[in-house]
Amino acid sequence: MSSRFAAPSVGAVLVDKGFPRITRTTLALYAGASGDHKPMHIDIDFA
Amino acid sequence: MVDSSAIGHSFTPTHARVESGRLRYFFNTLGETKPIYRDPAVAKAAGFAGTPIPPTYLFCLEMMDTDNPFEMLEALDIDLRRVLHGEQKFVYHAPVVVGDELTLQSAVTGVIQKKGGAMTLIDVTTRIVNQRGQHVADATRVIVVRNPEVSA
How far apart are CA A41 and CA B93, in angstroms? Predict the structure, then answer.
């Protein structure tokens, strides 16, 4: 499959995107959604 | 400390089914709204057999559907508190879409010591095959282990 993108030049901006604030709820939901249940992501005592 | 004798160690294969409900929850959590991921008609118009998974989702499937997410840490005697997930790479050979049933087989493919053994970098490569026996992807992660008993 050939690339649809031209080779970038040095200093070119590839992505300029903001995201909502990451909260403990976000992390808990992502742990469930991604299957990553390691305790440092969801348990502040462990972290 | 993990050393090069671990290279070649393979882990129990994980069997995973790509389910639309779990995938929808993943997209809702990420805020991913692209129609190609949610509407089979849009995906088919783009040439996929069904709605595709996002590139990183293979790693999630292995974590979700393994019987023991800590098998690698236990087998190599690694303390979870000293672990970081370093590089992660996905090489696709064919698309993976909703409804596929995958077998993910991971093995240790490299061990490198850094700073005189203060840090170990472990490569784990996962070969992924679908229900038709088609080799769809290889995923490689680098597990970084700190060895605080070794002074750099």
Answer: 32
